[in-house]
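Before the break, one more example. Copy the sequence into your notebook; we will annotate it together after we see the structure.
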Amino acid sequence: MDTQHQNNDKEPSGFNRAIPGTSALAGALKDTFGAFRNGLGITERQYSTTCEGCGASLTGHQHEVVRCEYCNRETQLN
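Here is what the structure looks like once it is written out:
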């Protein structure tokens, strides 16, 4: 089996391949905004759905794109 298929779940998204480090930056910004929201007492409603790829449960905030931990399919929460 070649290396590309072995690390399929760790493969960077298209944008992250073009500009390395964008995933880390996006995660840091998300955490920073979350800390500000929590500090100001602003709460966001959690949304839940099931993954269309494998049926696993997905949760997150409205309009957030979440990745299924089982099949790596990305879904936007409405």
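The longest strand covers residues 46-50. Confidence is low (pLDDT under 50) at residues 1-10. Try to locate both features in your own notes.
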